[in-house]
Input
Amino acid sequence: MKKCILITGASSGIGLATAHTLAQQGHTVIASARRAEALTALEKEYPNRVFAFPADVCDVEAMKALVKYAIERGQKLDVLINNAGLGIFDPLPEGKLEDWHTMVDVNIKGLLNATHAAIPALRESRGAIINLTSVAAHNVFPNSGIYCATKHAVLAISESLRLELGTEIRITSISPGSVHTEFIDQTKNEELLKNYKDYFASGLKAQDIADQISHVVNAHENTVISEIIVRPNKAVK
Ligand code: NJP
Output
C-alpha cells in the first residue's frame, strides 16, 4: 500500500537516504529540514512524489504547517519519521550551555513539536511514528552526556506514546550505533573531532538505517516493531 510519509531531517544522512528509498518504492514523501536546496534537488528527482517543505523543527507553527501541507499533498498522513537531530560532543566540564540547549531543543522539543502536530492525523489514518533514537538511549558515553540524555528522553517518549496510543498508532524506535553521515561534523572540539571522524566513517552507512526504516514502514499492519537496535559489524571494513 502506498503511503504518505513525512520525514524531518531529510536534507542529509539517514533522512535523505530514507527519502530516496521510500520515494523509489512509490510512497509520497514530504521532505523537511532547514536546508532548502537539498530538499529542492530531491523534489526535482521525484516529481509529484517528493514534496519539499523547508522548516526548523524548533518552530511550533512551522511544524503545524508542515503536517497540514503533508495532508494536503497525500490526502492523509500515514507515517511521521522524527529523524532531525544532532550531537555536539565535548567533555562535560568544557561543554557550552548553548550547545546543550540546542541538542535539547532539536532532539527533544523539535520531535515533540512534530509529534504533537501529527497525532490527530495519525490517529485518523491508524498510522505510525518512527523515532530516531540511538544506542546512546541505552548507554551513556563520555563526551556526549547531554546527547545521550536527549536520546534517553526520545526512547521514553516513544515508549509512553506506545503505551497510551499504541492501539491507534504504531510506534517504533530505531536506535543506531555509529553511522557515517554529517552527524559528527557538528562537533567543534577539534581534538575530539579528529578522534571521532574515523570511528564514524567506519560505522554503518545511512542506507543501512534507511533499509531498517523501510522495513518498518512496509511491515504488515498487524505488526508493531517497537524497537530496532542496529550496530556496525566492526569485523567488516
Ligand atoms: O545526521 P545528519 P544523521 N530543524 O547530520 C536535520 C540520529 N543518529 O543522518 O536542517 C530541522 O546527516 C538536518 O537538516 P538541516 C541522530 O541523532 C545518528 O546521522 O538542513 N532539521 C539534517 O537533515 C539524528 O536524530 C547517528 O541542517 C534539523 C538532519 O537533521 C538522526 O540519526 C547515530 C534541525 C541530520 O542529518 C539523523 O542523523 C545515532 C532543525 N533545527 C543516532 N537540526 C550517527 N550518525 O552516528 C538538524 O545513534 N536538522
Observations:
- Strands lie at 4-8, 28-33, 50-54, 79-82, 128-132, 170-176, 179-180, 204-205, 227-230.
- The pocket of NJP is lined by residues 8-15, 33-35, 56-58, 83-87, 106, 110, 132, 134-136, 176, 178-179, 181-183, 200, 203, 206 (CB under 6 Å).
- The CA atoms of residues 13 and 181 lie 5 Å apart.
